[in-house]
């Protein structure tokens, strides 16, 4: 299907984070956009309403498909028996998953796909920040709201490149193919491999295999940029045709920490102070630098842009700060992310006590067969707290976890376990925060805890 044929697009499961951003991006291009969902929360609800494309009612309405959209985009949230999907199939309307549609819209562009179990949002964000800083035209699809960007998706006709955060999770409920297999990259990054999504990939080998496939999809004259210090990445980023494909390994950027500030050491541009910190982010910077080098960005411009890069939302985001305390929140939830984030905060502020709070919220993190992956993940914290909502466990139809199981899984008998968010909040508010930092890690919301109010109470 030619891009010029598209005039009317319907999105099934339009309320999702990336899906509602796609809807807004298509609306910005002047296309007619409709959508449906059985639940639409903020900020998607307000953003869609402002654009005039919020569905009149929540639910699924097959008659919307009978209006004759040129294409239907199917979100992962929808089920295979979705009534609108069934009607689209009956009418032979082209159906795309999110990644398939992004590929169709970027066939004529250089596609840069950032993959990995951790770090991909940050690497993508750094690249986007640099390109915007130097005034380059580019399209993008990223999994977080970034400072300075109104959308998480941008699709234009004239941008020569597109920067894509390549998720390894499944693309849609029909094909069930990892998203990053469908973008057909020219330049790829693998930032790290650490088993996740146990509900889809029941063993580490099956999970790693998805990255091997991704690596081997690198075309002739393409580039594969990989974390050379990650053993799992080394197993998949094996040079097959080094004469045809450029293999570029990267490591932690040369740096030092002075008075809680991270200083990058460069060969030609001197020392560069940056707002980011943590060994994992220093790897992310190296990955982003290699990508930028591939697309012609000068080192000086890269480092100048980094001086003003504050990071992606919920990635070591500073919620508040006093003279002797800082409250951070981070999207970390997988074991490798939790360990790296906890280690980073402690290393940046070694003289301060670190209280690390992790919410177990995902299918994997609440699965007792997966829990041992968290062994040692909170060891860098002076006070380690694990919270989970029993209602979430029930909703996911999983077996309830016990305090002893969690202590054993984290290999840390001092881990405190909370299942009541109000009691957790009370504990955090009443303890002393003199010369101590608080790190809140979750892909959930601690049972709708007001983190802004908590931050004010703590500080």
How does this structure look, described?
The protein is of the alpha/beta class and 459 residues long. Helix content is 30%, strand content 20%. It has 14 helices and 20 strands. It has helices at residues 17-28, 44-51, 83-90, 98-105, 120-133, 204-216, 231-236, 279-294, 299-306, 335-348, 390-395, 403-409, 421-430, 451-458; strands at 8-12, 32-36, 71-74, 95-97, 110-115, 139-141, 153-154, 161-166, 187-190, 223-227, 246-250, 255-258, 261-265, 271-274, 317-321, 326-330, 353-359, 383-387, 416-418, 436-441. It has a 7-stranded mixed β-sheet, with helices on both faces. It has a 6-stranded mixed β-sheet with strand order 15-16-20-17-18-19, sandwiched between helices. Helix 6 links the parallel strand 9 (187-190) and strand 10. Helix 5 packs across helix 8. 47% of the residues are buried. The mean pLDDT is 94.
Layout: helices, strands, pairs:
Elements: E1 8-12, H1 17-28, E2 32-36, H2 44-51, E3 71-74, H3 83-90, E4 95-97, H4 98-105, E5 110-115, H5 120-133, E6 139-141, E7 153-154, E8 161-166, E9 187-190, H6 204-216, E10 223-227, H7 231-236, E11 246-250, E12 255-258, E13 261-265, E14 271-274, H8 279-294, H9 299-306, E15 317-321, E16 326-330, H10 335-348, E17 353-359, E18 383-387, H11 390-395, H12 403-409, E19 416-418, H13 421-430, E20 436-441, H14 451-458
Helix pairs in contact: 1-2, 5-8, 5-9
Write down how many β-strands occur, each being a DSSP E stretch of 2 or more residues: 20
**Which spans of ≥5 residues are poorly predicted at pLDDT below 50?**
none
Mean pLDDT over the full residue set = 94
Q: From the structure provided, what is the oligomeric state, counting identical versus distinct chains?
A: single chain
Structural class: alpha/beta
Radius of gyration: 22 Å
Shape: globular
Strand order of the largest sheet: 7-6-8-5-9-10-11
Helix content: 25-40%
The separation of the N and C termini measures 56 Å
Q: How is the biggest beta sheet arranged?
A: 7 strands, mixed
Number of helices: 14
Strand content: 15-25%
């Amino acid at each position: 299907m030619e891009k010029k044929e598209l005039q009317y697009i319907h999105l099934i499961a339009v309320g999702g984070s990336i899906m509602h951003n796609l809807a807004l991006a298509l609306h910005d291009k002047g296309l007619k956009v409709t959508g449906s969902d059985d639940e639409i929360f903020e900020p998607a609800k307000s953003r869609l309403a402002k654009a005039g494309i919020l569905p009149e009612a929540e639910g699924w309405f097959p008659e919307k498909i009978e209006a004759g959209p040129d294409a239907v985009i199917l979100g992962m949230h929808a089920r295979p028996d979705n009534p609108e999907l069934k009607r689209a199939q009956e009418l032979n309307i082209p159906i795309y998953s999110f990644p398939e549609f992004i590929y169709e819209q970027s066939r004529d562009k250089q596609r840069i796909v950032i993959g990995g179990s951790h770090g991909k949002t940050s690497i993508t964000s750094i690249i986007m920040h640099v390109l915007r800083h130097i005034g380059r035209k580019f399209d993008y699809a990223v999994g977080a709201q970034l400072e300075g960007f109104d959308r998480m998706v941008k699709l234009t006709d004239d941008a020569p490149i597109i920067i894509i955060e390549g998720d390894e999770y499944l693309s849609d409920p029909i094909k069930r193919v990892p998203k990053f297999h469908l973008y057909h990259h020219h330049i790829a990054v693998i930032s790290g491999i650490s088993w996740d999504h146990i509900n889809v990939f029941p063993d580490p080998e099956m999970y790693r295999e998805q990255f091997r496939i991704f690596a081997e999809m690198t075309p002739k004259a393409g580039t594969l940029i990989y974390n050379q210090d990650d053993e799992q990445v080394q197993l998949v980023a094996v040079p097959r045709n080094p004469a045809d494909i450029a293999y570029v390994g990267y490591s932690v950027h040369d740096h030092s920490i002075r008075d809680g500030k991270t200083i990058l050491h460069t060969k030609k541009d001197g020392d560069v102070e940056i707002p980011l910190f943590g060994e994992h982010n220093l790897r992310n910077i190296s990955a982003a630098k290699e990508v930028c080098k591939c697309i012609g960005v000068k080192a000086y411009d890269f480092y100048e842009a980094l001086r003003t890069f504050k990071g992606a939302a919920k990635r070591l985001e500073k919620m508040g700060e006093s003279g002797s305390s800082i409250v951070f929140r981070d999207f970390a939830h997988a074991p490798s992310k939790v360990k790296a984030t906890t280690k980073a905060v402690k290393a940046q502020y070694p003289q301060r006590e670190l209280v690390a709070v992790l919410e177990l919220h995902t299918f994997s993190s609440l699965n007792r067969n997966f829990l041992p992956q968290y062994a040692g993940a909170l060891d860098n914290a002076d006070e380690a707290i694990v919270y989970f909502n029993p209602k979430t466990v029930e909703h996911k139809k999983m077996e309830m976890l016990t305090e002893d199981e969690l202590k054993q899984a984290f290999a840390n008998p001092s881990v405190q376990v909370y299942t009541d968010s109000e009691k957790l909040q009370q504990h955090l508010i009443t303890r002393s925060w003199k010369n101590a930092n608080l790190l809140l890690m979750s892909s959930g919301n601690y049972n709708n805890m007001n983190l802004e109010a908590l931050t004010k109470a703590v500080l």
